[in-house]
Write a structure and sequence with these properties.
- With 591 residues, the protein is of the alpha+beta class.
- The chain has 17 helices and 22 strands.
- It has an eight-stranded mixed β-sheet, with helices on both faces. The protein has a five-stranded mixed barrel with strand order 1-2-3-5-4. It has a five-stranded antiparallel β-sheet with strand order 12-13-16-14-15.
- Strand 7 and strand 8 form a beta hairpin.
- Helix 4 runs antiparallel to helix 6 and helix 12 runs parallel beside helix 13.
- The protein is globular.
- The mean pLDDT is 94.
Length: 591
Amino acid sequence: MHRYRSHTCGALRESDIDQTVRLSGWVHRVRDHGGVLFVDLRDHYGITQCVADPDSPAFAEVEKFRSEWVVRIDGKVRRRPAGTDNPELPTGMVEIYIKEIEVLGPAAELPLPVFGEQEYPEDIRLKYRFLDLRREKLHQNIMTRGAVVDSMRKRMKEQGFFEFQTPILTASSPEGARDFLVPSRIHPGKFYALPQAPQQYKQLLMMSGFDRYFQIAPCFRDEDPRADRLPGEFYQLDVEMSFVTQDDVFAAMEPVITGVFEDFAKGKPVTKNWPRIPFAEAVRKYGSDKPDLRNKIVMQEVSEHFRGSGFKVFARMLEDPKNQVWAIPGTGGGSRAFCDRMNSWAQGEGQPGLGYIMWREGGEGAGPLANNIGPERTAAIRDQLGLKEGDAAFFVAGDPEKFWKFAGLARTKLGEELNQIDKDRFELAWIVDFPMYEYDEENKKVDFSHNPFSMPQGGLDALKTQDPLTIKAFQYDIACNGYEIASGGIRNHKPEAMVKAFEIAGYGEQEVIDRFGGMYRAFQYGAPPHGGMAAGLDRIVMLLCGTNNLREISLFPMNQQAMDLLMGAPSEATPKQLKELHIRTNLPAKG
């Protein structure tokens, strides 16, 4: 018999009854039922119930067992007594009568419980992540992550893509976040950067004639952490294709992402034919460039109903042609208490409030706005929004460029409060026609709004003749349930157009050559039209596992202060290391 096991803890069935077997695993828990000891033995594959009664030669040793000890158990497989079987366990029809044991690894007192899924302080969970990962739900999340990667690989290869690995030590690139820098020992004073994405390399692969690339790529960005963005590193399904239009990318990738979701949706509906929603429409209807389409609420502009009305605050705003009034319908929200609660919520978000109209019995509007604009305008708003008695509408006004994100938050808040969100489905959509540029208020300049390597719609002619803030790009995102899970674009592969695009954002031609020399040179020697995307593996797994925190689907994540509590990173370098790198630290003063 094998030194440690003849079977795993998830393998035994009724067909194994009367066999003598050997299992090794962790003591999940010990139960004493009237002098008979029941040991649930756990390994990666499952749990098997093991039994020792006072007649068992190992009874005295089993009494010493404690939670999470690693033990070897020899015994005979037998059927569980009638009425004690457990149909929820694959091994639930049998048990092992213990004959011999060996303690392979005793465990100290546990700093956190492994049995059960109770909440526990995050700093303890991360410091003892190896224990945390033994918990059933987290363990299963990690296995789901691996299965999702397998599904992605299989589907990409079926689509004719080839897997490549691009370099980790590279040059700094303006991807919109801070780089992690790596000092060079051989070249004093110079630094590598960890890739924020394999963007330039995957485009260079297209220059090299490889046609269809993909990679499960690690990416590194020195960003502040949040629940849906891990500090330090993340992984993405990175994709690039040659001789393609935007429609070709969609046709290739939509079935891959849909298929992955269907593989792990556990029966929840997944969008079959994805809608394509222009950025401006997404902002207008949903107040988000990553709308949650499970939320049935659609916002509408109602400016005309307030123009020249008795509600002077909105009427005066509308004298400026750039200002608008948007309505957010609230089906079933037509009570004074609810409307006041929403108004208080808006004030908590830093807004002056949230105007509203309620419709009571007979369909008559009520509330300060209704009183100011009169019954005819109130009825027109109700008709436009398709509302009835017992419903309400909430209003935001001003420059949409400044209020659309708040309007989106209000839509989400209303959807949650009024049960307008069907949480048992996955709603996927393409968001298209992103603006090529945006105005950076802080630095008072035009800057890229998305990926700087994307092709502007209209090409070089648009860059030369249009107001930059009106140029749309061949850029697109995938939105799912309120998250951006992928982003991509058709690339700007013409050197003159690339230089002009960066020039508009304040980069001179020499700076473009200095920073993107490899790609710029490659464009001079026969560059195919190409495009691609990158899908966030971590966010996709997070959605499929039904959690809202990426730390629940990652093996060894950092905490919110970007610290690895398990390994003690980041840590100070030794004087010898710093000397070899020709680096001297200049730490901020304490206090």
